[in-house]
Amino acid sequence: MKHLNLLSNYSFSHGQSPLSCMLCPRACRVDRSEGNIGYCGETDIVRLSRAALYFYEEPCLTGKRGVGNIFFSGCSLRCVYCQNREIALGNHGKEITFERLVEIFRELQEKGAENIGLVTATHFVPTVVKAVEEYREECEKEGIRPLKFIYNSSGYESIDTLEMLAGLIDIYLPDFKYMSPDRAKKYSNAYDYPEVAKAALAEMYRQVGGTIFTGDGMLSRGIVVRHLVLPLGTHDSMDVIKYLHDTYGDDIMISIMSQYTPLEGVGEKYPELGRRITRREYDRVVDFALSMGVTNAYIQERKVAEASFIPDFDSFEGV
């Protein structure tokens, strides 16, 4: 199997030794190019868990044909309550080559995808950059309009890595999980999450600016920030929304999510996470957003807090 050693190329171009991966804010400095595993749980060989049409993103992204979501294995944040825990912990995935990734872009386009979603791709960004460039070059040669790319992220991103994506990503879809460093430390082992997410979002906004829609209501360019309301987390949720609206107003979209689903065993160590949020908790956050003057936003019905909305990773569909 042929792979490109793009992690070493990234390291040298950024004045680093190939022994030091610093693609994410963890900066674990592991030599992933030699098969070693970083904090993300991955070497530099791309692994995918799923690549298929997905119909449960925000309506302005999904449209009628769905997002062509590509789920990358591993994660640099690894929240204790992650609904994609199977792949976030690096326990699920199939190795693919750079050439195969480009083929998957083309296959999703042929299936009619509205756009391509890169889900948790941080630790594979050097390869992703080359693949997107190759895909666009192929489309140009064949006179085909390339699909737009969505970067679906935890929000825990380094500026250097985001700068590599400038001009290649049309829509950023980051989480903004916490404003409380203590909650970020407790649930994601990332006390610096709030400040890192603020800086990352500012860079995303610098690259793509405010939201731009097509005539049919699809998002053509811009940012949708997701915030998942957690049990006993309403005060922190309101702090997040206040920051987002005070800083960006309606230039960005805010997706206030009610779909938290407790995974088996999580309530044993974190009792407060052993239940779904109540309607009162969610309504309190939504009412606060409305009182702040937030209008460019999505809210969710309670029925979406079901396990059926978690992608099936039992097979390697589309990989």
Question: In words, what does this structure look like?
Answer:
- This protein starts with 5 loop residues before the first helix and ends in a 20-residue tail after the last strand.
- Residues 1-16 have low confidence and may be disordered.
- It is of the alpha/beta class and 319 residues long.
- β7 and β8 (219-228) form a beta hairpin.
- It is built from eleven helices and ten strands.
- Strands 1, 2, 3, 4, 5, 6, 7, 8, 9 and 10 form a ten-stranded mixed β-sheet that branches.
Furnish the topology, listing elements before pairings.
Layout: H1 6-13, E1 47-54, H2 59-62, E2 67-72, H3 85-88, E3 94-95, H4 98-110, E4 115-119, H5 125-142, E5 149-153, H6 159-164, E6 171-174, H7 181-188, H8 193-208, E7 212-213, E8 219-228, H9 234-248, E9 253-257, H10 266-269, H11 279-292, E10 297-299
Helix pairs in contact: 4-5, 9-11
Summarize the structure.
The protein has helices at 6-13, 59-62, 85-88, 98-110, 125-142, 159-164, 181-188, 193-208, 234-248, 266-269, 279-292; strands at residues 47-54, 67-72, 94-95, 115-119, 149-153, 171-174, 212-213, 219-228, 253-257, 297-299. The protein has eleven helices and ten strands.
Overall pLDDT: 90
| Share of β-strand residues | 15-25%
Main beta-sheet annotation: 10 strands, mixed
Q: Tell me the number of strands.
A: 10
Terminal CA distance reads: 15 Å
* Radius of gyration from CA coordinates: 19 Å
Helical proportion, percent range: 25-40%
Shape: globular
